[in-house]
Design brief:
The protein is an alpha/beta fold. It has helices at about 1-20, 40-55, 70-80, 90-95, 115-120, 125-135, 175-185, 200-205, 215-220, 255-265, 265-285, 295-305, 310-315, 320-330, and strands at about 25-30, 60-65, 85-90, 140-145, 150-155, 210, 230-235, 240-245, 290-295. A 5-stranded mixed beta sheet has the order 2-1-3-8-4, with helices on both faces. Bound molecules: beta-D-glucopyranuronic acid. Beta-D-glucopyranuronic acid binds near residues 147, 212 and 213.
């Protein structure tokens, strides 16, 4: 009788454990862009594939338009404390939490998109992505997405660094990007403004401009209020799909592996959507009568040279990696 009771109890325990292991988990994903934007399309594809491959054990609800978190640093903090499952963010704010990730987004670092992808898909990029978790940030870097290159857009025409003096520029929440603006304008980059809030910040004169890629400049309608796009392509900042270590504790290790794989599988999907959107946005912006300033070789060099102190302050600890990145394209 006692034996039977022990057996029944053990059986019960096994069943209970199995139920916990296969329980459904629903997690939220935060995205600042609108539906239809390349990263938002990729978020949905990621959610669809995760649900399919985990046979419904993991469900992901995608919240676009910054409806959960308007500014990315706050979404990253939410990931750290496990209030949020996933966030598709720019690598730039991640640099404020994991400084080593700055090495792959230094100003004027890459020659073109191919150069950047060679680095990101190679040893350096993958080690940087893994470093997000091993740094103890509480974040898991799942994959990179394309975000083209960023240029300044302003309410005034600029042809050289000298013309930038005194301009207030909205930058992303990363000390290195704040400094980048300061080295060009004399005023530290203005942060705490989400990408969806830039339009009104420019309209109200809180800032004189911002910096971003063609699709964000167009999709957020910022080209309507800042009519000068200065094509200096100062940075190539990839997007990163982040997960929360704390929130993903509830997930079975096998399902976690599926999530990691699925994320990597969505990279090419986003890159294709990106290529199409980048062309479309540039065409829309140009057709609207925006002044697109192409810098002379000399003026471009002026922008590049102004970054010397930034490399000293933010790149010193990663000098080897930065050098490896530079030579990757040769
Ligand atoms: C866009 C990125 C987005 C950033 C935004 C920004 O896609 O993730 O939040 O820039 O400047 O290009 O904040």
């Amino acid at each position: 009788m006692k034996k039977l009771l022990t057996l029944a109890l053990s059986l019960l325990l096994v069943c209970a454990l199995a139920a916990v292991a296969s329980a459904e988990v629903t997690l939220k994903l935060s995205e600042v862009h609108a539906e239809g934007y390349p990263t938002a399309l990729a978020d949905h594809e990621f959610a669809r594939l995760v649900e399919e491959k985990t046979e419904g054990r993991v469900k992901i609800e995608v919240y676009t338009n910054g409806s959960l978190y308007a500014d990315e640093p706050t979404s990253i903090e939410a990931l750290q404390i496990g209030d949020l499952g996933f966030a598709r963010v720019s690598a730039s704010p991640v640099g404020a939490f994991v400084p080593s990730i700055n090495a792959i987004q230094m100003p004027y670092l890459y020659n073109n998109a191919e150069h950047m992808w060679k680095v990101l898909d190679g040893e350096i990029g993958q080690a940087m992505l893994a470093g997000i978790q091993s740094s103890g940030s509480g974040l898991i870097g799942l994959c990179y997405y394309d975000a083209g290159s960023r240029s300044f857009y302003l309410t005034k025409e600029v042809h050289a660094v000298a013309d930038m003096q005194g301009l207030k520029i909205r930058t992303q929440g990363n000390p290195m990007m704040i400094r980048m603006a300061e080295l060009l304008t004399g005023i530290p980059g203005v942060t705490g403004i989400g990408p969806g809030e830039v339009y009104s910040a420019i309209q109200n004169g809180v800032v004189d401009g911002a910096e971003n890629n063609w699709p964000t400049y167009q999709n957020m309608s910022d080209y309507e209020v800042a009519k000068f796009y200065i094509l200096d392509s100062h940075t190539r900042v990839p997007e990163i799909l982040l997960a929360s270590e704390a929130a993903l504790k509830a997930i079975d290790p096998e399902d976690l592996e599926i999530i990691k794989q699925v994320a990597k599988d969505t990279q090419e999907f986003e890159k294709a959507a990106w290529a199409a959107k980048e062309k479309e946005s540039e065409a829309i912006v140009r057709a609207a009568g925006t002044t697109v300033v192409e810098l002379t070789t000399e003026a471009y060099k002026g922008f590049q040279d102004a970054m010397a102190p930034l490399y000293e302050e933010f790149g010193k600890d990663y000098a080897d990696v930065i050098e490896q990145i530079r030579t990757t394209d040769q």
